[in-house]
Structures are given as C-alpha cells and as structure tokens.
Amino acid sequence: MDYLPLFFKLENRIALLVGGGQVALRKATLLTRAGAKVTVVAHVVEAELAELVEKNGGQVIIGEYHPALLDDANLVVAATDDEQLNERVHYDAVERHLPVNVVDSPPLCTFIFPAIVDRSPIVIAISSGGESPVLARLLRAKLETWIPQGYSRLGKLVGRYRQQVKDSFPSVERRRIFWEKILQGQVAEKVFAGRDQDADKLLQTALDNADPEHQVGEVYLVGGGPGDPELLTFKALRLMQQADIVLHDQLVSPEVVDLCRRDADRIFVGKRRDNHAVPQEGINELLVKYAKEGKRVLRLKGGDPFVFGRGGEELETLKQHNIPFQVVPGITAASACSTYAGIPLTHRNYAQSVKLVTGQLKNRSSDLNFNELIHPNQTIVFYMGLHTVGHLCEQLIAHGKPAETPAAIVSRGTRPEQEVLTGTLETLAELQEQAQLAAPALIIVGEVVNLHKDLAWFGEDVLQNHGLVLPDAGLSS
Ligand code: SAH
Q1: Which residues make Cβ contacts (< 8 Å) with residue 228, sequence separation at least 6?
Q2: pLDDT tens, 358-416?
Q3: Which among 385, 376, 360 is positioned nearest to 441, based on CA atoms?
Q4: Which end of the chain is more exposed for a tag (fewer CB within 10 A), N or C?
Q5: What residues flank ligand 1, with Cβ below 6 Å?
Q6: d(CA 419, CA 417)
C-alpha cells in the first residue's frame, strides 16, 4: 500500500487552492462539499470558481502566490499550469508539514484525491496510487451502479439511532449483532424501497423488543468448496463475513479462510486423515459452547458439508441443544476436480451415472461392495483414497472391471497446484508411486477420464509434464 486511505475532516478549515481555472474549480467543488473554506489565489480566477468559493465562505485573492498564505491553511492544492509555481507551492507546504496535492504530478503530492462514491455519510474512496486514475474511475462507475442511493439514507437512519442503541446494548458484540440484523433485514429493505418512515418504526420496535442480555447464538455450517475461493457461494461469503468465530479444518484453503471477517477468532480444528487436532466430539462441543455464549459460529468445511463431511453429526448435536443453525452447501470435490480436470462426470456416450465412494479402509479391509462398482457406463469417484489407490484398483479388477479402464488422480483440485495423473486401473497405483501427488486427492475411474486430454484447461498433467513412463506402455489411456 503506497498511500494510507484516511478521511480528512475539513469542515470550516482553510484549504489553500493555487490556480483559477477549470482544474482548480473541480478541486474547489470537492473541498467545499466537505465544508472547507477555500482560499483561492491566482492572477485570473474563473467566474464560476469565484462564485463557488465566496458562496461557501471562502476568499478569492487575485494576484501572486506567496508563502505567507500557507500560514492559515490546513491543506494545500496547486492546480496551475506553471510547473515552477507548482513546485514552489509543494516545497513551501512540505517545509511547513502541510499536506499538499499538485494536480497531475504524483511525485509532488503528499496526498492524492481518490475517486469517490458519495453516499454520505457513507463515502467510498478508490485510489490507484496515482498509477491509473482511469482504472480507479472505472471501478467507481461499477460501484456507483452496485450501491443504491438508499445507502445514504440508511446511513443517516443508523446515525440517528446510534446513541440509543449504544445505551441499550452495553456490549460491543451485542451491538454489532443488532446492527448486522437491522442492516441486512427488513429495515434496510424499507429504506431501499423509499419507505423511510416504516423503516424508522421497524427499527424502534426492534430496539424496544431486544433483550440485550440473552442473545442466542447461531451456527453456520458452511461448505467452503474445494479450494479456489471464487467457487464460494454468495451465501457462504455473507455468513463468513458476519461470524464472530470460525472453526475450520485442513481442507479449507487459506485463501478461503482469509475471506472470513477480519476480527473473527479462528480456530483450526482438523488435520489430515486420522491425525485430528480436535476430535469430532470435541468439535461438536465447541460449536455448542460458543453458540451458547451468544456467538455466531462458522463451521467452515472443505467442499460440501454433507458429502463425507460429518456435517450431519454436528447438526444432530446442535439440535439436541436447541441451537439454531443454517447449512450452506458447497461445491464438492468430485464436481470441482472433475470440472477443472476436464473430466465430465457423466457423458451421453460413456457414463449415465456417478458414484461417490469413500476409499478409506476400516481396519485395513474395505467393506465396499465392489460388485456394485464394476458396472459399465458409470463413473466412480473415490474420496480419501490416495493411500489405498493400489487396493481399490486391484479389487475393482478382481471383481471383473477391465484392467484397461481409464483412471485418474486429481491432486489439490482447483488450487494453483492442481495436478492430474491419468492411467488405467492397472497402471495408476504404480504411476502414483513414481509421481507422489499430494493430498487432498480424488480418484476418478471410468471411460470419461479419456476426455481429460481434450477438455483439460487448468492444472498440469503429470504424465505429460514430468515425462513419466507408463509401467505398461501398451495400456496408455
Ligand atoms: N466434504 C468434502 C470431502 C471431505 S473428505 C467435499 O465435499 O469435497 C476429504 C476428501 O475429499 C479428500 O481425501 C479428497 O479425496 C477430497 N478432496 C477434498 N478437496 C479436494 C481437492 N481440492 N482436490 C482433490 N480432492 C479433494
């Protein structure tokens, strides 16, 4: 960050503006909007500028700039086309430790004017650090269309109730929860619909009925998707940004965790495979404990919470304790990894059904029904199967699935490190032995794997890029 964005209180303060043309007029417009008294100095001052300045209690000086003018100023803007003069103003201001802006000359600025979206009291400032004002303006145009004018009235409404809410809820946390409900609920809707009086009444009623002591918490069980943060749902993101505390595990990528509210407490509860930082029962207890303290607890899980995610168990515990919850689905690894690897899970010609299967062995033996998995024209996706890939492939062959059936491993799917290894049931385990792709990884078995060569658009194919040799050259996929 090259510049720290700050908001400057200029009401009734003097801003010295050197220059009397159109550019100066634009700056004067902004400065007076913030309540500044502008002193303009130039040999020629355009009529419109002079009028604006005088109307707002400022002063127009026709004549030469001189440093004594800086004595009363709180901020200085040079907007002349005389480079030497601009430079003089800059050095005089810096000498006096005054913030100075020289229009169109970033090296001579100690502050810059951002592009502004004005929904006062809400004000959004966008800066490109002087690198590309046009880009900042384009962004501003986007925000202008995205943020309704109603935000201004909503901001003012909140301002009117601020003290009353503060008196009713002594704790900062309770206040925040109250405001978040108000600003995302009916009150805001009414304001946006132009029905400010209704909004006012609703807000007063909410305040009258609020119990500041006994706030019940809530748990959000949210699927964080497979890793790429852009695969989050809007709902997931909204809840992530309002939760007070986050419990996440290994599968959730750091980029996704980063999108949670900045000041939310984060608790890491899970490691890979059998090595849990907090056992499942412990996680259930933590969810109950924090919710009972009145917190909004985010249980953030990789992929979808109900696909090999033990989400069901967590909800049962919440139900037992009468704790309200919301569940948000996420994109599960099978869907995400297959898409990013160019392997359609179904295909008119090759697969009419998909099976999602756990590859984890209980007590070193699998209780999977392999007879069901060997049917032709279906795709099988093994979760948690990286360490048992040899066993799974062997068993499929032993139960009658052709050894040359295409099979793939997708490692760290959708993340920048995604890798795809393709082979057959016969070759895959040995290829993985050489390639050592990292967890988390999915195994996909079925004819659709062959489409990877043509449809892949993301991530590396290990076979091609690392020059791996197929153990059995005759059985290439
Ligand atoms: N609830 C999760 C699955 C949890 S089980 C979901 O819906 O995706 C954990 C297994 O998911 C891992 O062993 C791996 O097989 C798979 N997995 C999760 N994220 C993955 C990713 N980004 N790439 C490949 N496999 C992934």
Answers
A1: 253, 255, 336, 340, 414, 415
A2: 998 876 566 789 999 999 999 999 999 999 999 999 999 999 999 999 999 999 999 99
A3: 385
A4: N
A5: 226-227, 251, 301-304, 307-309, 332-333, 337, 383-384, 410, 412-414, 440-442
A6: 6
Tally of CA atoms within 13 A in the half-sphere of 217 that contains its CB: 22
Tokens 């929904």 belong to residue? 119
Ligand 1 atom showing the smallest separation from residue 333 Cα: 8
Q: Is 131 exposed, middle or buried (0-12, 13-18, 19+ CB in 10 A)?
A: exposed
> What is the C-alpha to C-alpha distance for residues 212 and 178, in angstroms, rounded to an integer?
9
Neighbours of 132 (CB within 10 A): 11
| Angle, helices 150-168/172-183, rounded to nearest 10 degrees | 150
The type of residue at 320 is Q
Q: Which of 248, 308, 339 to mutate to test the pocket of ligand 1 (most atoms within 8 A of CB)?
A: 308
Q: Is 211 designated active site?
A: no
Tokens (6 digits) for 229: 């943060």
Report which ligand 1 atom has the smallest distance to the Cα of 309.
1
Task: Give the dihedral of Cα atoms 248, 253, 259, 265; nearest 10 deg.
Answer: 30
For residue 31, give the 3-state DSSP assignment.
helix
> Which two three-digit tokens encode residue 227?
């890793």
- pLDDT tens digits, 17-67: 999 999 999 999 999 999 999 999 999 999 999 999 999 999 999 999 999
- Bridge partners (DSSP) of residue 39 are 16, 59
Cβ(406)–Cβ(422) below 8 Å: yes
Decide: 99 and 108 in contact? Cβ < 8 Å.
Answer: no
- Is 355 an active-site residue? no
* Helix 428-435 and helix 389-398, axial crossing angle in degrees, nearest 10: 170
- Report residue 305 as tokens: 């919470």
pTM, 2 dp:
0.69
Q: Residues 127, 132, 134, 138: what is their CA dihedral angle, to the nearest 10 degrees?
A: -50
Contact 10, 27 (CB under 8 A): no
- Give the ranges where 348-388 is alpha helix by DSSP (H): 370-373
What is the Å distance from ligand 1's center to 440 Cα? Answer: 6
Residue nearest to atom 16 of ligand 1 (CA): 383
Q: What distance in angstroms lies between residue 349's CA and the mean position of ligand 1's atoms?
A: 27
Query: What is the spatial distance between Cα 187 and Cα 17, in angstroms, rounded to a whole number?
Result: 43
The alpha carbon of 385 and the centre of ligand 1 are apart by a number of angstroms equal to 10
How is residue 360 annotated by DSSP? P
Here the tokens at position 212 are: 């500041």
Distance, in Å, from the CA atom of 20 to the CA atom of 78, rounded to the nearest integer, reads 10
C-alpha angle with apex 396: 393 to 401, nearest 5 degrees? 120
